[in-house]
Prior knowledge:
ABC transporter involved in vitamin B12 uptake, BtuC; 70% helix
Amino acid sequence: MTKLLQTIVDGLGVGSTYALLALGISLIFGVMHLVNFAHGELITVGAYVSYFFFLHGGSWWWMPVAIIGSAMLASVATELVAFRWVRNASPFTLLLTSFALERLSHALWQILVSPKQRAFPKPSWVFYQFKLGGISFEWMDIVTILVTAATLLLTALVFKRTMFGISVRGAAEDFDAARLMGVRANRVISGAFAFAGLLAGVAACLILMRSPSADPSMGSDWLMKAVIAAVVGGLGSFSGAVIGGLVLGLLETLTRAYLPEVATGWDKFSTAVTFVVIAAFFVARPDGIFKVSHAERV
Length: 298
C-alpha cells in the first residue's frame, strides 16, 4: 500500500506536467485545427533563458517569471512570424510549418549556443522529503500538483468568466460564426497562443526545477507525451487534455513500479508497455475519452 500511494503521487506529479502541455496543444487545436509540434520548443526556450540568466547571477526566486514570460513571448512570436501567414492554408501546410519551426529551433540552439547539454543550479529544496502517515513524499511532487491545480483553476476561470475566454471557446466551436458575431480573429488567435505559452511556461518551470539543464532537443520528448495525452483525452477538449495527461502519468509510473526489470533496459520496456496500452485504448475508442465536434471550415 505504501509503494502504491507513493507511486500514485509520483504519477500525478508527472501527469500534471503532461496535462499543462496537453492543454496548450488542445487550445491551439481548438482555434486553428493545428497540432502544433513546435509547442515543445517553448520548454527549450525557457531552459536556455534560465541558463543565460544563471550565467549572470540568476536566482530561482524570480526565475519562474523569466521562464513563463519568455515562453509566452516565443509562443506569440511563432504565431506572428510563421502561422499567421499560412492560417488559411491546408492542414498539411500548417502541420509542415510546425515541424519546420521545431527543426529550425533545434538547429539554431546548436549553432548559436552549443549542441551539448548546458546545466545550471537547481533549487535546494527540490528533493527534500516529508513523511505523512509513515509514507515519504517529495516536496516537488506536492508542489507540482498544487501549482498545476492552481493553473487549471485559473484556466477554468479565464475561459468561463472572461470575454477573451468566451471568444476562444466560441472560435473553437465554430470560427466563422464567431467572426460574424464580432470576434476578431487576430486577437483571439494571438491570445490563444499567449495563453498556451503561459501553460507551457509553468510546465517548463516544473520540469527545469527537477532537471536544470538546457539541450537543443529537450522539448521533443515532452511534446510527444503531451500530444499523446491530448489525443487520449480527445483532441480539442480542455477537460480531456487534463485527464489524458494524468492518465498517461499514472500509467507510466505504475508500469515502472510494478513491471519486472528487464535487463538494463527496463525503462524503455515500461515505456513500450505504456504505448501498447494506449494503442489498445485507441482501437476501442479512437476519438479519445471525450469526443469533440468542430464545425468544418470552408
